[in-house]
Backbone:
């Protein structure tokens, strides 16, 4: 009896439309609450390190001396904790996804320009 159920499922799957979108050709539908990636306005950042301490997956690295802010996109789970804890609101959760990369190490490093 299970062979007939499996055959029925197989035929139904073959004759129906695909369950997924053709991603590169058709972009995914974005909803208001879609979490795509974390963005920073580096000029407003005060390098307090709250985002680094609050990050549950240790994806953010803040260096006060060099005035750099770095995020590892592969480690980030886009939980939004860093955005909520930022005192100057320089972090935001953008709903655009990170572009695919062929590199093994995808870290975005932002450096604040020193005032002249």
Residues:
């Amino acid at each position: 009896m299970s062979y007939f159920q499996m055959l029925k499922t197989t035929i139904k799957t073959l004759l129906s439309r695909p369950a997924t979108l053709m991603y590169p050709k058709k972009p995914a539908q974005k909803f208001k609450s879609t979490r795509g990636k974390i963005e920073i306005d580096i000029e407003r950042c005060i390098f307090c390190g709250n985002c680094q301490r609050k990050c549950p997956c240790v994806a953010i690295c803040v260096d006060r001396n060099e005035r750099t802010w770095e995020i590892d996109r592969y480690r980030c789970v886009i939980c939004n904790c860093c955005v909520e804890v930022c005192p100057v609101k320089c972090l935001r959760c953008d709903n655009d996804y990170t572009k695919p990369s062929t590199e093994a190490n995808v870290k975005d490093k932002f450096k604040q320009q020193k005032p002249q």
